[in-house]
Every structure is written in C-alpha cells, then in structure tokens.
Design a protein that fits this description.
With about 290 residues, the protein is mainly beta. It has one helix and 15 strands. About 25% of the residues are buried.
C-alpha cells in the first residue's frame, strides 16, 4: 500500500512538474515573440478606458467597444454599461461613432435602470502625430434624449458635447494622452424632493484628464488615468449645484488577438474617487473588437 501511494504521489508530482515547465516555456515563447516588436507601445492604441485617445479609425476598419463599471459605495450600487461603435468616413480624417449607455443602479431608495441618453459623435483628425507634434482629434457629440428622466437615466433635452483629445508617444514603450471637454445641456428640468419638476436651467460641465501608458510587453500595457469633472447639476431643492469630482484609475490592457485584420483587446481597471463627491467604483471591465469591414 505504501509503495502504491508513493508511486501515485510521484506521478502527480511528475504531472505538476510537466505542466509547470510547459507553462514556463509558453510564457517565455510569448515574451520572446512580443519582445520582438520594435515599438511595443504601437501594438495597442486607441484603447484607453476613461481618457479618449486622438487616433481616428483607419479606412475600412470598424471598432466595437464594450465597457462595464460596477459601483459599490454608500450612495450608488449597481452596474453601468456602455457600447460604442466607431466607423471611418471615407478616410482617416473623418470618423463617426455612437455611444449607447445603460444602467442598473440603486441610489438610496431609488432605482436607476434602462437605456440612457445616446451620443452621436463626429471626430476630425486635425493633426497626425509627428516627431514633435501630438495627434489631435477634436470631437463634437449630439446628446439625444433617449433616456428616462423619471428613472434617472436621462435629462429629457437635446445636449451638446465637445472634447479635445491629444496623444503623443514619447518613447518606444511610453505614451501620454490629455483631454479637455465641455458638456452643455440647455433648459433642463429635474425631479425635486416634493415630486415636482424644477424650473428650467441650462447646465454646463467641464472635464479634464490625462493618462500615461507603459508597455510592459507589446501586448500588455500598464495604464494610469486621471479624470477631473467640474459637474453642474440640479439638486432636490431645484437649485444649481456645482461639484468637482476627481478620479484616478490604475489598470491593465492586453491584446488577446493581434492579427492583420482582427484585434481583440481586453482590460480591467480600478477607478478610485479622490474626494467625497466622486464615486468609488468597484471595478471597470473593457472589451474592444476591431476588424476590417472588407
């Protein structure tokens, strides 16, 4: 019996050793293949989470982007989803995209659920990246009132958004990005505590942000993003309320597939609110599928 048990134990150890060796060999193989890239930061681009990169889609290439944020703090608990699809318009200079948000969140005793306000986006590649110049692609978005004001998913007005993204690869393994934006919502009415609607008010919110991305490997990038939102909203008393909401978000992104006509990028991050007004998210998940149209 003892010899049989020892033999079984040796066989298990042998299998475990072979599996470990195989895993190490595969990891080394992937590392060598990935390290062969001359500029590791070039392998994954236009795949940031909270910051917008200034690179339009190449002609004939479509990108599908899925985001999921889990909120788990004392004020908000639940999920927020977003789907974006980007299309080049004849050339890389012009790009059209749309963004569809949806929510399933509990705020105190209120439930926020359903489709939010859809964004129709146009972005122009004003500057292509050069040795000294950054890439620059200003964006204009039309915000459609597809959400529900009573459920908390929309504002019931047509809104407008502008964003100025800049991107620069400053080294073979390091890139930096910056955003400056504005959102304008005219004649908004919001539910008040008494069950009535507030007087109409025009709301203006500003956003700034920056990020640094370092290529640990060509297909594996370490990310650090910071976003600050100067938010304007209507409180339960019907008055305009202003708040600054800064968030820092460390994360990782990886290209699981990186072929000539198909790229699949996954990512995860941990957005952290830096003051009492900002949300503390439980996590952020990202999926991008980019492929040739023809």
């Amino acid at each position: 019996m003892e010899l049989t048990e020892k033999r079984i134990e040796l066989e298990r150890m042998s299998r475990a050793t072979r599996a470990l060796v195989a895993g190490v060999v595969m990891a080394l193989g992937f590392s060598v293949a990935w390290a062969a890239e001359k500029r590791p930061i070039d392998v994954i681009s236009d795949n940031s989470f909270l910051i917008e990169e200034a690179y339009n889609q190449e002609p004939g290439v479509i990108q599908h982007i899925f985001n999921t944020v889990y909120n788990n703090d004392s004020r908000r608990r639940g999920w927020a989803f977003s789907f974006t699809q980007e299309w080049p318009v004849f050339s890389q200079e012009h790009q059209f995209s749309f963004t569809i948000p949806s929510y399933r969140i509990v705020e105190g005793s209120d439930r926020v659920y359903g489709v939010g306000d859809i964004l129709l986006n146009y972005r122009y590649q004003a500057l292509e990246e050069g040795e000294a110049l950054p890439a620059f692609s200003p964006r204009f978005s039309l915000i459609l009132p597809t959400g529900n004001r009573d459920r908390g998913t929309g504002n019931n007005v047509v809104g407008y958004q502008w964003n100025l993204p800049f991107s620069k690869k400053v080294a073979s393994r390091f890139a930096m990005h910056a955003n400056f934006g504005l959102t304008y919502l005219p004649h908004v009415r919001a539910p008040m505590a008494a069950g009535q609607l507030s007087p109409r008010r025009s709301l203006v919110s500003y956003n700034v942000g920056a990020s640094g991305i370092f290529a640990l490997l060509p297909r594996l990038h370490l990310m650090l993003e910071w976003v600050g939102i100067f938010d304007e909203s209507i409180n339960d008393a019907g008055r305009t309320e202003r708040a600054f909401k800064p968030t820092i978000s460390p994360g990782l992104r990886a290209a699981m597939v990186n072929e000539e006509k198909l790229q699949v990028v996954v990512g995860a991050a941990l957005p952290i609110g830096l003051n009492r007004k900002a949300d503390n998210h439980g996590g952020f998940l990202y999926l991008s599928i980019e492929h040739d149209l023809f």
